[in-house]
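Sequence in, structure out. First:
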Amino acid sequence: MTRSIRAALPRTRRRPTAAVAAATALATAIGILAGVPAGAATGKQPGNAGAAPVVTRAALDPKLVAGRGAQVAFLEQEAENAATNGEVIGPDRSAYTLPSEASGRRAVKLVPGRYVEFTLPAAANAITVRYSIPDAPSGGGITAPLDVAVNGKRTRTMTLTSQYAWLYNQYPFSNDPNAGLLHPDWWITECSCVPAATTPYPSIPTPFRPSHFYDEQRLLLDRTYRAGDRIRLTAPAGSNAAWTVIDLLDSELVAPPRVRLLAANVLAFGADPTGRRDSAPAIERAIAFAKRTGLSVYLPPGTFQVNRHIIVDDVRIEGAGNWYTVIKGREVTLPAPAPDGSVHTGVGFYGKDAADGGSRNVHLSGFAIEGDVRERIDTDQVNGVGGAMSDSTIDGLHIRHTKVGIWFDGPMRNVRVTNNIIVDQIADALNFHTGVTDSRVAQNFVRNTGDDGLAMWSEATANARNTFDRNTVQSPVLANGIAIYGGTDNTVSNNLIADPVREGSAIQVGSRFGAEPFTGHLWITGNTTARAGTYELNWNIGLGAIWLYALDRSIDARIEVVGDTYLDSTYNAIMLVSEWSVKDLYSISNVHFRDIRVDGTGTSVVSARSAGSASFENVDARHVGAVGVNNCGSFHFTPAGSEFSLNDLGGNDGGWLADWQLPNTITCDDRPPVIPPPPPTTW
């Protein structure tokens, strides 16, 4: 949910199971920068090479992230740890490359005829494959086959697609790889210039800034296979894709479909489970009947075509499970722009607008929403779930290929968003926008968003007393894993955030996008980040794994950062910064870091590029690439020292916070060399 750091662009309306525990014992410590666990493939493996299953979480040894992130039903296996006769690519954290957007920054590239083979760590009857294939020469994507074999016997051929991948150019991006600059009047790093104001006009290669390469597909297998069985993925010899990159495989034992006999079954109202006919009217008839009779609505197994919003209020809609019930629609061009600026509509379940009182008592569970969004148009309301829903629950959905998985426009209160999987979004996975209060987002899994994974945006009205707890956010292509823009008494706790790619951090606290000020407290507690802190394209500097940013106003509410762990940060672990144009207007203060562990930074533990202060207590660091503190303050370099002060409350181990750096010694090295740290290990 970011705009360019220029802050001048338009906004988007945007217990582990026994099997998991057993598989965890098989995992070995993973090399975070190199991404290679002990004994794993480091290049091509011969075709008969067996590989014991290496189970990871966000490409990490699960021991490193115990208690953090979502408890999910599937087991993750990175392709680079499997048997393959393909090419292991990466590691690379530079934007616009295939490895940079891969989980753990490594993947396996298959040319036709090559394979990657995974050994199941536990019984499974379903898999998810995260992959990338090339775009069409003029954009729009291609399709290509991928053979799936179990124990040497081909069972299925998946049809992969790049129709929902491959964006180019400047925000809000283009589907055309050959397009010229969308904004030639913007400064760009590639030429260190404003092209439109430069003579001669610089040569800008195309495709310009390709990104958003990956997609994923799920496949129910023909039966349940045992631990130790081998799943081989092969790019067949006749594939029209010059290459197929496999990032990872998730395997899962999916329960049988749920059946609700005492419910308004949408089939009784004319819904078509084959997906050939539009089922929206039938679903709406079932909703009306359910409200009259006090029943819930049941969506049985099948694919139901829905190409517009279904408005929900005071209703419970249950599917047979998100592997079985799919609500799928195409994007539809409106005959004229809607009052909200939308030029398209598409599949989505929406509460009534907040201005019309919003909806209440809405409960959505157990189905998938499959959209058809292939371009970013911020005015479009083409989200999986939207509107305003108070006293409501969203549980167990799988949402893919929408603009934003769940975008709530408040004011609204008391919504619970739990146990959902939100992947392959053009923008955010979830955004609490404008006056969302007393709500909770927990145990959700997010991967491959085109903007912030989870966000609270207090535009016009403050969000308050909300919690983001025990969620996993992986590989946001642009912006942040979790972002909080203003608000009162909100909490970010026990989350796992890994691999942000571009112009963002794992966690951002931002006074920006016209958000209301931070007031009261903000608690950031017990989170783990991995391989976070990206290169900021417009500033030409590296960011922190956690990034506090004062752009629109000062940040002076009490912010408590307690018990976080920052693993293998690409640049800094902690960054506090104000935009250059307002560096003498705004500051960051009243920030308190306590009981923090920093295992590996490419540059510093703390980078301060703002006036203000922060306290540090029991912040332990090791494998620090540069000086522990990079204190530039507001860049005035006064005789009195930096405008930013560090308050040492004791117990800060590892030598990163020395007496000579306190309280405000200038230690400004704006772009220190990056020294990749060794892989993190248990403390």
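Second:
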Amino acid sequence: MQKFFRETDIKDSDINELKNLSNQCRGDILKMTTLASSGHPGGSMSTVDMLLLIYKYANISPENYRSLDRDRIIVSHGHTSPAVYSVLGRNGFFHIDDAISQFRLAGSIFEGHIERSVPGVEWSTGNLGQGLSAACGMALSGKLTGRNFNIYTLMGDGEQQKGQLSEARRFAVKHKLNNITAFIDYNKLQISGNIDDVMPQNIKDEYVSDGWMVFEADGHDFKELFNLIKKAEKIERPVMIMARTIMGKNVSFMEDIAAYHGKPLSEEQLENALNELKLNNDIDKYKELRSRFQHSKTLHQIPRYKLSINTGKPKVYSTETKTDNRSAFGNALTDILQHNSLNSSNTPIAVFDCDLAGSVKTDKASKEYSEYFFESGIQEHHTATTAGAASVNSVVSFFADFGVFGIDETYNQQRLNDINDTNLKVVTTHLGVDVGEDGKTHQCIDYIGIMKNLYGFKVIIPADPNQTDKAVRFAAENYGNFLIGVGRSKTPVIKSKDGSPFFGEHYSFEYGKIDIITDGDYPLFTLGAMVPYALKVHEILKDRGISIKILNVSCPTDINSQDLKKHIKGNYIFSYEDHNINTGLGSLISDTLMEHGGKLPRLIKFGINRYAYSGKPAEVFKLMEIDSNTVADRIENFLKH
């Protein structure tokens, strides 16, 4: 029967059981790293006692590890995976022999750094410094879903040099996340040696100054750790336990040696170490099991929670409306929050901001639904991770930011979100050269090129307020990671032939579909804020007797080849974007055509071929030679020759 910290005390018999188990786990750690000829045994052996204690008494077990009411255990220093696998295996989450024999074996779920596909692992880590942010996201999910669980986060000491941890510490205190208990494996060693030599810092005082309660303890003393965890449960703020440990603990020739951070033992050293631990050396058994391993893709799948989202009825903007896509996003988000909050059984929606609510138009949501709105300040890295972690705990997360911050600056965080199969909706405003006056540092002209590297993200760049509204609602009700990108300026509502809104009442958003805005002979593929400019090109060339078909590719990273080909009949096609010409829409069209063969037309790309200038968008467009007149002239010249 699983016991919980809040329901029990630790007995001498429990301590003896944990000591015996920790000895076994250290043997497991050494066997698997030696067998794989790689891995991180030293820190695994200094962390393992904390892991054993937490998994014994926290509310998580092989029976409930998918329950939303379970406690969460996050291991931020994911290179200590040997310790994690050993402890989980010894606690029945899977067979320990599988973990030992398959460690770091190609195709196995027991990878070098922990992954969510392993039963009992909450968050895929490896990029140091993100675990505490993930803990914050999971803590928020508990508040939003009304569930009472604790979160235990384990980190390394060298990891504390990462700036994102400062962001997470402040956020946890501001939002009163007092169900977080963090542990630092304070063995004072990292790859290059002593942590004070590599990068001096005062870890304890940094946490104290940010408002945390800090305790110090012997990280190998089960009773002391247990009592501090019990004490932490009664403290109304986040708690950090700075646990003094010894790298390579219990093997004399490994203890306090930095080299064993990432250096496995030879088989001869393994024999000596197991003798010290008084354990049988059955490495040959695991060699045999390893040789019989068979890969299974299904074991790598990450289970998802079901969503129940009421997105309301789409809003239709008339053709006389003068607004911007970011405002349409803000209106749609607020409307979704209103409809979704009417039923307590619906999946909660969390909105994350980085001091830009007025600019990204989440300010209305923050005022009307403050309980679902989380202000992070100028802490983009932390916020991206927190929003992602909340979304894998039965919450739908919206993270709104400027493009250069929400995409470029946080690429590593979004990549880890993608690996964790999060349910995150990243909405970035101020894309492209449309944010002209802010200059090249704020002109996000690489958002397609960056996001196409992430296998799980769907990208939507809507053309006008009506398509934006429908895209936001589509993303909200469909599980998965989405980027919805919009510009800053007001954009006209796109019209159909009859003068009604093109993306109006009868339009249904279909991911990946290419929209035919106007018919014509020569296709001009475009997207987002460039659609109105493309329509001007159409009108200019129409007066010159040239028929251009305007095609809106709102989902540029998932272009359907058959849909694309049916629009191509002549020898020329054109792409038009305010994106880096090397990695944007034009390049993706070219890739799609080349991959699927057939007669290939010549593709002429209009886009950004260098960093742009600071100035009004229309003036910048002209200097960059992507204004409507210049593009029309160039198309005409190509067609004449």
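Remark: The chain has a mean pLDDT of 96.
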